[in-house]
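Re: [ENG-882] Designed sequences occasionally contain unexpected residues at chain ends

Forwarding the minimal case from QA. Structure tokens:
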């Protein structure tokens, strides 16, 4: 059971992130279309090649989302899918598209994740992002189980639960705040070599991170994701389409996902995330090991997410993650290149499209298109996706020809 590496990412497009947000953050059809066209142009393919789509939810439709999109774009889709797994959704969408291609359902699939976008000029009510918006809001609607059993006890949003995980980690394994800060610092180094990154040209030190405000003890402000406007798309095709593409294909070699719960209240053990299962199965499917990876792109909404994912994906032992970070150079020029475009901490998180940043980070490296931040001889990449509070987890393994 599994993929045979007969489907590849052939092109991509990622909007340069913008730190100014508008109040209307609905994902819309026009943005879906523009991102898709740009990704097809990048691949050297035409809209007539497309016969499948994968999408998150969009603002124009509360149901019949795929047909709303295909109708708007004029696509006759043999395969259409909605993915609703938060930050794990992009990686999850990629493997679903690859599976559909390998099954012969379609030849070319658009996987498009719009992010926050600007509304028409006459309707805009612009405002500049401030610190009060940096740290996420609760998605727990009243009437849900969370409203009854969690919100009354202040277990909502993202900051508190991720802080809880980090605090528990420190209790069980010890906590080196300088190692945690180094994650953000090394990624900022990568962002400084990535012209489109929000924090391009703004280097960071460990002291800077530790001096930033404490948001959810032990997590500082500069260990928490930077929201922005943007969006991203990839084109996935079969071997015939790969021959037509102008890029080096990034073949989807292995994948897996695990979705056991929504909030950590229901986790069996906060210190062991679903990534353990997802990564093991992905590597088994690919027939590759951790040491075969030339770079990793780890979902990084918080520094603790990176640490937990490195351990649970098997790149280091449980409880040894901080030692691993201290002993390795995580920059694009280092011995363990990670989040080479800056990750969401320093490139920026365009809402639901944040997970696609990690997919594209791996693809860009395999295609040899990372510019100054290019990893030498990069042929294989591990990509992680994370939704909820370390709850929805997806792993991908990509390989160049």
């Amino acid at each position: 059971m599994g993929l045979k590496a007969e489907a590849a990412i052939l092109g991509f497009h990622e909007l340069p992130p913008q730190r100014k947000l508008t109040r209307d953050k609905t994902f819309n059809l026009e943005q879906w279309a523009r991102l898709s066209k740009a990704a097809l142009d990048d691949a050297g393919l035409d809209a007539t090649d497309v016969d499948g789509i994968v999408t998150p939810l969009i603002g124009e439709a509360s149901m019949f989302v795929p047909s709303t999109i295909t109708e708007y774009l004029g696509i006759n889709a043999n395969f259409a899918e909605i993915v609703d797994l938060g930050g794990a959704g992009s990686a999850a969408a990629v493997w679903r598209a690859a599976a559909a291609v390998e099954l012969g359902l379609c030849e070319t699939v658009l996987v498009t994740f719009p992010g926050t976008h600007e509304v028409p000029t006459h309707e805009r009510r612009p405002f500049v992002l401030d610190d009060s918006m940096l740290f996420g809001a609760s998605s727990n609607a009243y009437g849900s189980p969370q409203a009854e059993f969690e919100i009354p006890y202040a277990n909502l949003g993202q900051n508190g639960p991720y802080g809880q995980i980090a605090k528990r980690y420190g209790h069980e394994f010890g906590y080196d705040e300088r190692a945690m800060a180094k994650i953000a610092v090394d990624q900022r180094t990568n962002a400084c070599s990535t012209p489109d990154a929000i924090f391009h040209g703004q280097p960071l030190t460990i002291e800077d991170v530790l001096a930033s405000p404490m948001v959810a003890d032990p997590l500082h402000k500069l260990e928490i994701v930077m929201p922005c406007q943007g969006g991203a798309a990839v084109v996935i095709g079969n071997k015939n389409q790969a021959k037509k593409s102008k890029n080096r294909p990034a073949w989807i070699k292995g994948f897996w996902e695990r979705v056991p719960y929504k909030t950590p209240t229901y986790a069996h053990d906060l210190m062991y995330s679903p990534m353990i299962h997802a990564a093991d199965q992905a590597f088994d499917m690919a027939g590759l090991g951790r040491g075969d990876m030339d770079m990793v792109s780890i979902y990084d909404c918080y520094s603790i997410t990176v640490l937990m994912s490195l351990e649970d994906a098997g790149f280091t032992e449980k409880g040894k993650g901080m030692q691993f970070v201290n002993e390795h150079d995580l920059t694009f020029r280092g011995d363990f290149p990670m989040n080479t475009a800056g990750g969401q901490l320093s490139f920026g998180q365009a809402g639901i499209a944040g997970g696609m940043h990690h997919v594209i980070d791996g693809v860009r490296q395999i295609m040899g298109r990372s510019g100054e931040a290019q990893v030498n001889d990069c042929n294989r990449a591990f990509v992680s996706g994370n939704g909820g509070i370390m709850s929805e987890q997806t792993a991908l393994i990509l390989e160049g020809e």
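QA comment: On inspection the terminal residues look reasonable. The longest helix spans residues 29-43. Proposing we downgrade this to a documentation issue.
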